[in-house]
Protein backbone atom coordinates (compact mmCIF):
# COMPACT_ATOMS: atom_id res chain seq x y z
CA UNK A 1 0.00 0.00 0.00
CA UNK A 2 1.20 3.49 -0.79
CA UNK A 3 1.75 5.78 2.15
CA UNK A 4 -1.22 7.78 3.40
CA UNK A 5 -0.85 11.23 4.92
CA UNK A 6 -3.48 12.37 7.44
CA UNK A 7 -3.43 15.71 9.25
CA UNK A 8 -5.50 16.73 12.25
CA UNK A 9 -6.20 20.46 12.49
CA UNK A 10 -8.13 22.87 14.67
CA UNK A 11 -7.97 25.85 16.97
CA UNK A 12 -6.64 25.70 20.52
CA UNK A 13 -8.40 23.28 22.86
CA UNK A 14 -9.91 20.98 20.25
CA UNK A 15 -8.06 17.90 21.50
CA UNK A 16 -5.96 17.32 18.39
CA UNK A 17 -3.13 15.55 20.19
CA UNK A 18 -5.50 13.22 22.03
CA UNK A 19 -7.39 12.30 18.88
CA UNK A 20 -4.18 11.83 16.88
CA UNK A 21 -2.99 9.34 19.49
CA UNK A 22 -6.33 7.50 19.54
CA UNK A 23 -6.42 7.30 15.74
CA UNK A 24 -2.85 6.01 15.60
CA UNK A 25 -3.72 3.32 18.14
CA UNK A 26 -6.81 2.31 16.17
CA UNK A 27 -4.93 2.00 12.87
CA UNK A 28 -2.07 0.07 14.45
CA UNK A 29 -4.59 -2.40 15.87
CA UNK A 30 -5.93 -2.84 12.34
CA UNK A 31 -2.44 -3.78 11.17
CA UNK A 32 -1.27 -0.56 9.55
CA UNK A 33 2.23 0.80 9.98
CA UNK A 34 1.76 4.21 11.57
CA UNK A 35 4.01 7.19 12.24
CA UNK A 36 2.50 9.78 14.59
CA UNK A 37 4.06 13.22 14.66
CA UNK A 38 3.27 16.89 15.28
CA UNK A 39 4.15 20.39 14.12
CA UNK A 40 6.14 22.36 14.84
CA UNK A 41 8.35 19.50 15.96
CA UNK A 42 9.13 15.92 15.09
CA UNK A 43 12.87 16.48 14.68
CA UNK A 44 15.64 17.93 16.83
CA UNK A 45 15.86 21.14 14.82
CA UNK A 46 12.10 21.50 14.51
CA UNK A 47 11.69 21.12 18.28
CA UNK A 48 14.22 23.90 18.84
CA UNK A 49 12.24 26.11 16.48
CA UNK A 50 9.04 25.13 18.32
CA UNK A 51 10.50 26.28 21.63
CA UNK A 52 11.29 29.68 20.14
CA UNK A 53 7.91 30.03 18.42
CA UNK A 54 5.74 29.09 21.38
CA UNK A 55 7.70 30.59 24.26
CA UNK A 56 5.73 33.32 26.09
CA UNK A 57 9.01 35.25 26.04
CA UNK A 58 8.74 35.60 22.23
CA UNK A 59 5.91 38.13 22.34
CA UNK A 60 7.98 40.59 20.27
CA UNK A 61 8.28 38.17 17.34
CA UNK A 62 7.28 39.71 14.01
CA UNK A 63 4.53 37.91 12.06
CA UNK A 64 6.89 37.39 9.10
CA UNK A 65 9.53 35.88 11.37
CA UNK A 66 6.87 33.56 12.74
CA UNK A 67 5.81 32.52 9.23
CA UNK A 68 9.36 31.79 8.10
CA UNK A 69 10.16 29.80 11.23
CA UNK A 70 7.10 27.59 10.83
CA UNK A 71 8.12 26.85 7.27
CA UNK A 72 11.71 26.14 8.30
CA UNK A 73 10.48 23.65 10.90
CA UNK A 74 8.23 22.05 8.27
CA UNK A 75 11.11 21.50 5.85
CA UNK A 76 12.98 19.49 8.49
CA UNK A 77 9.83 17.64 9.51
CA UNK A 78 9.04 16.53 5.96
CA UNK A 79 12.62 15.57 5.16
CA UNK A 80 13.31 13.58 8.33
CA UNK A 81 9.92 12.19 9.35
CA UNK A 82 7.04 12.51 6.90
CA UNK A 83 8.55 11.52 3.55
CA UNK A 84 10.59 8.55 4.84
CA UNK A 85 7.45 7.13 6.50
CA UNK A 86 5.33 7.66 3.39
CA UNK A 87 7.97 5.97 1.25
CA UNK A 88 7.84 3.00 3.63
CA UNK A 89 4.11 2.77 2.89
CA UNK A 90 3.03 3.88 6.35
CA UNK A 91 0.11 5.99 7.50
CA UNK A 92 1.47 9.31 8.75
CA UNK A 93 -0.72 11.17 11.25
CA UNK A 94 0.39 14.71 12.02
CA UNK A 95 -1.01 17.10 14.59
CA UNK A 96 -1.01 20.24 12.38
CA UNK A 97 0.44 20.88 8.93
CA UNK A 98 0.21 23.62 6.28
CA UNK A 99 -3.46 24.43 6.93
CA UNK A 100 -2.49 25.72 10.37
CA UNK A 101 -0.04 28.16 8.81
CA UNK A 102 -2.70 29.48 6.47
CA UNK A 103 -5.18 29.80 9.35
CA UNK A 104 -2.89 31.31 11.99
CA UNK A 105 -0.43 33.40 9.99
CA UNK A 106 -2.78 34.16 7.10
CA UNK A 107 -6.22 34.68 8.59
CA UNK A 108 -5.01 35.34 12.14
CA UNK A 109 -1.99 37.58 11.50
CA UNK A 110 -3.18 39.02 8.21
CA UNK A 111 -0.18 37.99 6.09
CA UNK A 112 -1.04 37.71 2.39
CA UNK A 113 -2.47 34.31 1.52
CA UNK A 114 -0.67 34.22 -1.84
CA UNK A 115 2.67 34.75 -0.11
CA UNK A 116 1.92 32.00 2.39
CA UNK A 117 0.95 29.67 -0.45
CA UNK A 118 4.18 30.45 -2.33
CA UNK A 119 6.35 29.80 0.72
CA UNK A 120 4.45 26.61 1.44
CA UNK A 121 5.13 25.42 -2.10
CA UNK A 122 8.86 25.85 -1.51
CA UNK A 123 8.82 24.26 1.94
CA UNK A 124 6.63 21.26 1.12
CA UNK A 125 7.15 20.69 -2.60
CA UNK A 126 3.33 20.80 -2.74
CA UNK A 127 2.98 17.83 -0.40
CA UNK A 128 -0.61 17.76 0.82
CA UNK A 129 -2.39 15.45 3.26
CA UNK A 130 -4.64 12.94 1.55
CA UNK A 131 -7.15 13.53 4.35
CA UNK A 132 -7.49 16.32 6.90
CA UNK A 133 -9.65 16.05 10.01
CA UNK A 134 -10.64 19.54 11.15
CA UNK A 135 -11.78 19.52 14.78
CA UNK A 136 -14.08 22.44 15.50
CA UNK A 137 -15.32 24.04 18.69
CA UNK A 138 -16.27 27.57 19.72
CA UNK A 139 -13.26 29.66 20.68
CA UNK A 140 -14.20 30.39 24.30
CA UNK A 141 -14.75 26.71 25.08
CA UNK A 142 -11.47 25.73 23.45
CA UNK A 143 -9.46 28.32 25.35
CA UNK A 144 -11.18 27.38 28.61
CA UNK A 145 -10.20 23.74 28.08
CA UNK A 146 -6.57 24.74 27.67
CA UNK A 147 -6.63 26.98 30.72
CA UNK A 148 -7.86 24.03 32.78
CA UNK A 149 -4.87 22.06 31.49
CA UNK A 150 -2.64 25.04 32.35
CA UNK A 151 -1.45 25.45 28.77
CA UNK A 152 -0.02 28.93 28.31
CA UNK A 153 2.06 29.06 25.13
CA UNK A 154 2.45 32.30 23.18
CA UNK A 155 -0.38 31.68 20.71
CA UNK A 156 -2.83 30.72 23.44
CA UNK A 157 -2.16 34.10 25.09
CA UNK A 158 -3.47 35.98 22.03
CA UNK A 159 -6.78 37.81 22.46
CA UNK A 160 -10.04 36.11 21.56
CA UNK A 161 -10.46 38.08 18.32
CA UNK A 162 -7.27 36.49 16.96
CA UNK A 163 -8.59 33.00 17.66
CA UNK A 164 -11.95 33.88 16.10
CA UNK A 165 -10.14 34.88 12.89
CA UNK A 166 -8.19 31.62 12.94
CA UNK A 167 -11.35 29.57 13.38
CA UNK A 168 -13.07 31.46 10.57
CA UNK A 169 -10.07 30.74 8.36
CA UNK A 170 -10.18 27.02 9.10
CA UNK A 171 -13.91 26.85 8.42
CA UNK A 172 -13.47 28.71 5.15
CA UNK A 173 -10.83 26.23 4.00
CA UNK A 174 -13.08 23.33 4.96
CA UNK A 175 -15.93 24.80 2.91
CA UNK A 176 -13.67 25.15 -0.14
CA UNK A 177 -11.99 21.74 0.13
CA UNK A 178 -14.77 19.47 1.31
CA UNK A 179 -13.30 16.35 -0.30
CA UNK A 180 -10.01 16.61 1.61
CA UNK A 181 -11.02 18.44 4.78
CA UNK A 182 -13.66 16.72 6.93
CA UNK A 183 -15.22 18.81 9.68
CA UNK A 184 -15.75 17.18 13.08
CA UNK A 185 -17.61 18.81 15.97
CA UNK A 186 -15.46 18.20 19.05
CA UNK A 187 -17.75 19.77 21.65
CA UNK A 188 -18.78 16.29 22.82
CA UNK A 189 -16.81 13.77 24.85
CA UNK A 190 -13.53 12.26 23.67
CA UNK A 191 -15.04 8.88 22.75
CA UNK A 192 -17.81 10.41 20.65
CA UNK A 193 -15.26 12.46 18.73
CA UNK A 194 -13.06 9.39 18.30
CA UNK A 195 -15.92 7.37 16.82
CA UNK A 196 -16.70 10.16 14.38
CA UNK A 197 -13.08 10.36 13.24
CA UNK A 198 -12.74 6.58 12.93
CA UNK A 199 -15.87 6.50 10.78
CA UNK A 200 -14.43 9.12 8.43
CA UNK A 201 -11.06 7.38 8.21
CA UNK A 202 -12.60 3.94 7.64
CA UNK A 203 -14.74 5.33 4.82
CA UNK A 204 -11.67 7.00 3.32
CA UNK A 205 -9.66 3.76 3.36
CA UNK A 206 -12.61 1.80 1.95
CA UNK A 207 -12.81 4.25 -0.96
CA UNK A 208 -9.12 3.70 -1.70
CA UNK A 209 -9.75 -0.01 -2.17
CA UNK A 210 -12.39 0.54 -4.87
Automatic annotation (TrEMBL):
The Thymidylate kinase-like domain, residue ranges: 8-197
Entry GO CC: cytosol
An annotated GO BP: dUDP biosynthetic process
Keywords: ATP-binding, Kinase, Nucleotide biosynthesis, Nucleotide-binding, Transferase
Residues binding ATP: 10-17
Database matches in NCBIfam families: DTMP_kinase
Protein family (similarity comment): Belongs to the thymidylate kinase family.
Protein name: Thymidylate kinase
Protein species of origin: Candidatus Sulfobium mesophilum
Gene name tied to this protein: tmk
